[in-house]
Amino acid sequence: MNIQKNYMVGFAIMLFASLNIQCKGNQKEEKSTEVTDTQKMEIATIEKTAFGTTPEGESVDKYTLKNQKGMEVAIITYGGIITSLKVPNKDNVYEDVVLGYDSLAKYTKSSPYFGAIIGRYGNRIAKGKFSLDGKEYKLATNDGPNHLHGGAKGFDKVVWTAVAIKGDSTASLKLTYLSKDLEEGYPGNLKAVVTYTLTNDNVLEVLYEATTDKKTIVNLTQHSYFNLSANFSKTILDHEIAINADTFIPVDATLIPTGKLTDVTNTPFDFRAAKVIGKDIEAKDDQLKKGLGYDHCWILNNQNEGFKLAASAYHPESGRLLEIYSDEPGIQFYTGNFLDGTLPSKTGGTYAHRTGFCLETQHYPDSPNQKYFPSTVLNPGEKYTSKTSFKFSVK
Predict the structure, then answer these.
(1) Partner of 106 for a Cys bridge, out of 59, 101, 161, 325, CB 3.0 to 4.6 A?
(2) How crowded is the C-beta side of 339, counted as CA atoms within 13 Å?
(3) Angle at Cα 303 formed by Cα 301 and Cα 305, nearest 5°?
(4) HEC string of the chain?
(5) Catalytic residue selected from 147, 223, 296, 315
(6) Cα 180 from chain centre
């Protein structure tokens, strides 16, 4: 009986041990599967390199964000400038589709805001002045009689503080700049934060945030020049543009809004159905003559929807499609009318007339002086937020 009892006990122990080992084996298999799934996740990367030193002796860095598919965006801390943006064509060839330079010295010497963050106020302010609570503030007149894109040294010409943030499927660059009270004539210490995020869906998101300690105005935007052909020696006249807007804002001879709004119907400004840029750009139209082409703000439809499709650009030959989503009320469409062949291209040669276009999401030009335009005032205790996404695909 004792022998049989001992045998039974031993058998039970062996059976238990066998089951335990089998159970652990299953757990190992599950864990191994989890590791495999993690390895399959689409991991984004961020690389930091030096990009030079400003004439004032400030160091500038370049951050290159890349997603798993191969889309890549390079951003420098000087001006928050997008220096390169590589996206696929219909043959899955990744090429750079934004105008810019290959060195910091060229940006600091002369740039028509290539790829830059624009602030404090994107677009024009009439005669370089505006009033808040009865007090007049004077700004630089750096565009004829008017103030343009933040002044002589706007946000495009300062060095931002950068923090890289990497997720499993996104790569972000958070840029911060403190614009001091009365810098370029604007009231209030304004803390501006702009976060670029690259996703694995080939979307570049731009989140703008700002706070102030004194009543001020703010209108931030991004000023990349696109050429979806990736051949900067070619014009953008063959690109098809669609703008989700029934109305645009006419301007005077100095490109300041007249205060009136115009229905796009039966005008060269009707982009509600996609059309080639070159179709009407040379039409005999007073507004095109004043802008030397398209350099106007459109009032976006469905503003109560918040974040919405604002515009798109398509290049049939390459198959590249750019869709722009935003919660801003307007978008400035500019066709590189002032590019004149004097600026060096990063691929050799120069940037000729209309070799890049801009689609800048924003509030309307000269809003501080236009009674019926949406307000751009920011008060202490409030937070300015705005978001725009650039989505790339092929068709």
Answers:
(1) 101
(2) 26
(3) 110
(4) CHHHHHHHHHHHHHHHHHHHHHHHHHHHHHHHHHHHHHHHCCCCEEEEEEEEECCCCCEEEEEEEECCCCCEEEEECECCCEEEEEEECCCCCEEECECCCCCHHHHHHCCCCCCEEECCECCEEHHHEEEECCEEEECCCCECCEEECCCCCCHHHCECEEEEEECCCEEEEEEEEEECCCHHHCCCCEEEEEEEEEECCCEEEEEEEEEECCCEECECEEECCECCCCCCCCCCCCCEEEECEEEEECECCCCCECCCCEECCCCCCCCCCCEEHHHCCCCCCHHHHHHCCCEEEEEECCHHHCCEEEEEEEECCCCEEEEEEECCCEEEEECCCCCCCCCECCCCCECCCCCCEEEEEECCCCHHHCCCCCCCEECCCCCEEEEEEEEEEEC
(5) 223
(6) 24
pTM score over 0.85 = yes
Sign of CA dihedral 151, 157, 161, 165: positive
Answer yes or no: is 26 within a domain: no
Number of domains in the chain: 1
* Domain encompassing residue 359: 45-394
Q: What is the pLDDT of residues 232-269, one digit of tens each?
A: 999 999 999 999 999 999 999 999 999 999 999 999 99
**Token pair for residue 42?**
């689409």
User: Is position 22 within any domain?
Assistant: no
Write down the catalytic residue from 184, 239, 360, 363. Answer: 360
**Model confidence over 86-137: pLDDT tens digits?**
999 999 999 999 999 999 999 999 999 999 999 999 999 999 999 999 999 9
Structural domain includes residue 175: yes
Active site residue 296: no
Query: Phi and psi dihedrals of 98, rounded to 5?
Result: -125, 140
Residue 344 lies in a domain: yes
To the query of whether residue 360 is one of the catalytic residues in this protein, the response is yes
Say which CATH number the domain at 227 has. 2.70.98.10
| Residue among 111, 124, 45, 46 nearest 79 (CA) | 111
